[in-house]
Design a protein that fits this description.
Blueprint (H helix, E strand, L loop, with lengths): L1 E10 L7 E10 L4 E6 L8 H23 L3 E5 L4 H4 L3 H7 L52 E2 L3 H11 L3 E7 L4 H4 L4 H6 L3 E10 L12 H15 L3 E2 L7
Parallel strand pairs: 3-4, 3-6, 4-5, 6-7, 7-8
Antiparallel strand pairs: 1-2
């Protein structure tokens, strides 16, 4: 068992908007816990985002190697890139599992995000038009023999049930888009009863400070992290997985 410090936020007065940051410790069994890497692509249509994601990928690789050595199951989820991996055993291993019907969703309330990314969130000026720039996961992050590859929530959930996994740490990008919205990510997995934890220093946002609430990029990312802590799941720092 590994003890990890988690951060969450609680509404201290019912019906108010007064939130208190709370830290607590929880035990995790690595053999029954997955770490999912969300959309850490090789390239992004927004050059500034590509540069940020490059930095995160190299830092993340260290965390993933340490977590794998402790026995955590690693799942690589670079959306839209499954054709690249279709013949690998790490891909075949998860699609060969029996499909498990997920439970009815919990229908958790999902308030609006605190940042506006309706402009697609790229800070570059002029901003390029979005296109599918990615072909695979960033090559700084090793895919080991015992890892799995999927960008499908039903596949991931079926694996969790087969392996009796109830806890999932998630890292990657973007925290206000894919980290929340993918079928394998926080909203869906939480609604299916999986305990999620966001690794908050191994993520980033798609946010342009010229959009509301007109804060810096890093402040915008932190606002989304706090939103997730309020309404969806706790977070931790990656150093907790380096022990």
């Amino acid at each position: 068992m590994i003890e990890i410090t988690l951060r969450t936020r609680t509404n201290i007065f019912h019906g108010s908007d007064t939130w208190q940051e709370v830290h607590f410790k929880k035990q995790f069994d690595p053999a029954k816990t997955a770490i999912l890497i969300c959309d850490m692509w090789d390239f992004h249509w927004c050059p500034t985002s590509t540069n940020r994601f490059n930095r995160i990928a190299h830092e993340m690789s260290i965390v993933i190697e340490a977590a794998r050595n402790q026995g955590f199951q690693i799942i690589h989820s670079p959306s839209d890139c499954m054709d690249f991996y279709k013949d690998l055993p790490q891909r075949q291993g998860i699609i060969s599992l029996p499909c498990v019907q997920p439970p009815d969703p919990l229908h958790i309330t999902d308030p609006p995000l605190p940042i506006d990314a309706s402009d697609d969130g790229c800070e570059d000026n002029p901003s390029p038009k979005p296109y599918r720039a990615w072909t695979r996961q960033h090559d700084a992050i090793r895919i080991a023999e015992e890892d799995l590859i999927s960008d499908n929530g039903d596949e991931v959930y079926s694996f969790f049930m087969d392996a009796r996994i109830q806890d999932m740490f998630i890292m990657g990008v973007a925290v206000n888009m894919c980290i929340l919205g993918r079928t394998f990510a926080i909203r869906q997995m939480t609604n299916w009863g999986i305990n999620c934890v966001l690794v908050r220093d191994m993520t980033d946002s798609m946010y342009n400070p010229k959009m509301p609430p007109y804060v810096s990029h890093d402040e915008g990312t932190e606002l989304v992290v706090q939103h997730i802590e309020k309404y969806w799941c706790p977070s931790c720092l990656s150093q907790e997985l380096l022990l």
